[in-house]
């Protein structure tokens, strides 16, 4: 059971009525960015986080209390 052209046209008409023609391009742009980020867009990945380890004494001193 697939979607025919008439089903897609009906869904598009309902979406257009609900959101209006001015808001629709912004919604589609946001949807496109979300799909690209889910696919793992390789050109804009954040820089890796570098963690440093500090040596901590297992014994408490008087100044730690």
Task: Outline the structure in words.
The chain is 54% helix and 0% strand. By secondary structure, the chain is mainly alpha-helical. It has one domain. It is elongated. The chain is built from one helix and no strands. The mean pLDDT is 76.
Give the helices and strands, then pairings.
Elements: H1 5-39
Strand content: under 5%
Number of domains: 1
Shape: elongated
Number of helical segments with 4 or more residues: 1
What's this, in brief?
This protein has one helix at 5-39. The protein has 65 residues and is an all-alpha fold.
Brief descriptors of the model:
single chain, 65 residues, mainly alpha, 1 helix, elongated
């Amino acid at each position: 059971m697939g979607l025919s052209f008439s089903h897609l046209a009906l869904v598009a008409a309902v979406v257009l009525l609900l959101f209006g023609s001015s808001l629709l391009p912004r919604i589609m742009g946001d949807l496109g960015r979300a799909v690209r980020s889910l696919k793992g867009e390789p050109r804009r990945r954040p820089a890796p986080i570098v963690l440093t380890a500090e040596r901590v004494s297992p014994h408490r001193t008087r100044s730690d209390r």
